[in-house]
Amino acid sequence: EHLKSLKLLYLGKNNLTTLPESIGSLSSLKRLNLRNNKLSKLPNAIGNLSSLSSLFLKGNNLTYVPDSIGNLINLKYLGLASNKLPLLPETIGSLKSLESLNISSNYLTELPDSMGHLKSLLRLELSSNELNQLPDMDNLSSIKILKFDRNNLKFLHNSISNLTTLESLKVDRNELKELPDSIGQLKSLKELDLYDNKLTKLPESIGNLSSLEVLDLSKNLLSLLPESIGLLSSLRELDISTNKLTNLVATIGKLPIALGNLLNLLFLKFNLFKELREPIDSGRAVKLFFPKYNSFKDLRCSIESGSSSILFWLRSKDSRFFNDPIVSGISFNELSLMSNNVREDNELIVSGKIVNRFDSKCNSFSETRE
């Protein structure tokens, strides 16, 4: 009786295996923390906690969530990560106030269709499950962050285009072979992580992601980039390492009006490049991580204007020569050509340019021009 006015109850890091039905009588409770116990199920009375705004259940042994969970109409945060849940009840779609839902590291193979009705949801985390597909989520009209990494997703619905507020989409370490054309309609998207999928191509519509700042395409099967990639005017980090790229499209030199007016990081290592011929205007670029572990024999890529703090040309096994100056109008803090088998510099360092550190170890320069 004396606990009915209780608003906060912390029972985390104990050895609880069950909860009494009487917990449902705590009608004023707003925060209930049950993290890191040994609970395998929840009592139906959990649904009587009508004032509850936060429910923390991470790190238990839950295999079941009762339907009564849907009665928690004031719940804003629900944490169910690191349990043993194979499914969720359809009633979860009744949590109209829910803003953050974390169900990462469970055994989910599918999601209830009602999940798409959570109109107040801002953040949804489903990492490290066994999901093969996602329900239609086009009604998640407030969503900003989606994390579906480490699942078995084969495709994304075209309806993803309706998530107009989405800012971060993580679908790395899945089985995606292609992206829907509609992905280009995500005008608010700032981060897109597609690392370690099976993508063989990208839709031209990807160039419409005008707010995109970070794009990770590493460890896929890409042999070509779409011309539209040069339209990503907000991009500051691009990782296309560990693909099957043999050359860059001409528009790569147009990124942020060059591969880098705003671009900070470019990763190209572990591809099949044999030549680079497109000009790169580095603008205000901070770091350009250029090809490491490729097969360069002909580098005709000029880097024009701006100030880069670090430019790496690292360990490209068979690079023999640079046919044109790669430096024009840039001040470098560090320029590394280590372990490239470069034999001639051919005006590599242009007179008057500032290079605070020049590392050319393990090459075969006949001379280095001042």
Automatic annotation (TrEMBL):
GO terms for biological process: cell-cell adhesion; establishment or maintenance of epithelial cell apical/basal polarity; neurotransmitter receptor transport postsynaptic membrane to endosome; neurotransmitter receptor transport, endosome to postsynaptic membrane; receptor clustering. GO terms for cellular component: adherens junction; basolateral plasma membrane; postsynaptic density; postsynaptic membrane. Gene3D superfamilies: Ribonuclease Inhibitor. Keywords: Leucine-rich repeat, Repeat. InterPro entries: Leu-rich_rpt, Leu-rich_rpt_typical-subtyp, LRR_dom_sf, LRR_R13L4/SHOC2-like, Synaptic_Scaffolding_LAP-MAGUK. The keyword Transcription does not apply. Pfam families: LRR_14, LRR_8. Residues 68-170 form the Disease resistance R13L4/SHOC-2-like LRR domain. GO terms for molecular function: protein kinase binding. This is Disease resistance R13L4/SHOC-2-like LRR domain-containing protein.
